[in-house]
Amino acid sequence: MEYSPNGEIPRVSKVDSGTLELVRSLGVKIVTSANIIQNSTQLWTDKQLESHIIAGNKLTSIVQQAFNYIGETLESKPTEYDISRFIQSQFVDKNLALSDGPVVAVNAHSSDPHFDPKPDNSHVIKSGDWILIDLWSRLKSKNSMFADITWLAYVGEKIPNQHQKVFEVVIGARDVAVSYLENAFINGNLVQGWQVDQVSRNYINKSGYGIYFNHRLGHSLGREVHGNAVNLDSWETHDTRYLVPGIAVTIEPGIYLPDFGARSEINLYMSDEGPKVTTKKQESVVLINH
């Protein structure tokens, strides 16, 4: 039934307690239908995967254009809101669907994973600023799938030591999750969503930044940016659904200090040949010079 023990997976916790009591009174053992629902409704076709990859490539191009645009217009004092509007204009030009977002967050604003720049809350971007951009979209075609990425940049010639250190921990936590999934596939082991979250979380804990990683590792992708398949989550929920071929997830560890935050977000598709990263990995902080 659409039931999750202790409500661990809210998206499949649909059956009321009275119905559960009635069915159990008949001597029936109730088990969750979470994996059945996922396998019957959330697996992608090859065409849907292709649409996701195209969207991801377009988003990567747009985020690079946004960083270039910041450098080109720095003397005009662009704000976070200005850059978000620029990104939205690129969505239109590249035939991507407009939804909410993007996140364009400078310095302390980047410590808010869901910062939404508006005219009245945006900071001017200037030399010495740390910038996080999180953008997501899909092709406008009806059956297309979302891509969702986050990149980081610094306005200047040399990244501050702490920013560089935090960035390296974040991409390390990202990559260890990918390696965990790859090794599990090689060894023929099925993996549940909470387990992947724990791998990255343990990595960040060992770095000493564990208390600053305050959201789940990732979510599923689909026709909505937050899809209905397995999430990489042992933090907000305890997701016991399996990562099976045909689904895609984000991997987006983050560290959010009082003065700045860092997140690196990639997308990964579970294919019949194993897990495949479908978006470009950021390996170094983008330097914006003017």
What does this structure look like?
It is a single chain. This protein has 6 helices and 10 strands. Helix 3 packs across helix 4 (80-93) and helix 5 (161-186) packs antiparallel against helix 6 (193-207). It has 2 domains: 5-32, no CATH class; 39-288, Creatine Amidinohydrolase (Alpha-Beta Complex), CATH 3.90.230.10. It starts with 16 loop residues before the first helix and ends with a strand. With 290 residues, it is an alpha+beta fold. It is 34% helix and 16% strand. Strand 8 and strand 9 form a beta hairpin. The model has no long low-confidence stretch (mean pLDDT 97). It has a 4-stranded mixed beta sheet, with helices on one face. A 4-stranded antiparallel beta sheet has the order 4-5-8-9, covered by helices on one side. It is globular. The longest helix is centred in the first third of the chain and has 28 residues, at 46-73.
How many β strands by DSSP? 10
CATH secondary-structure class of the largest domain: Alpha Beta
CATH architecture of the largest domain: Alpha-Beta Complex
Overall helicity: 25-40%
Biggest sheet: strand arrangement: 1-2-3-10
Shape: globular
Report strand %.
Answer: 15-25%
* Main sheet record: 4 strands, mixed
What is Rg?
Answer: 20 Å
**Helix-strand pattern, N to C?**
HHHHEEEHHEEEEEEE
Specify the structural class: alpha+beta
Oligomer: single chain
What's the number of structural domains? 2
How many distinct helices? 6
> Unreliable runs, pLDDT <50, ≥5 residues?
none
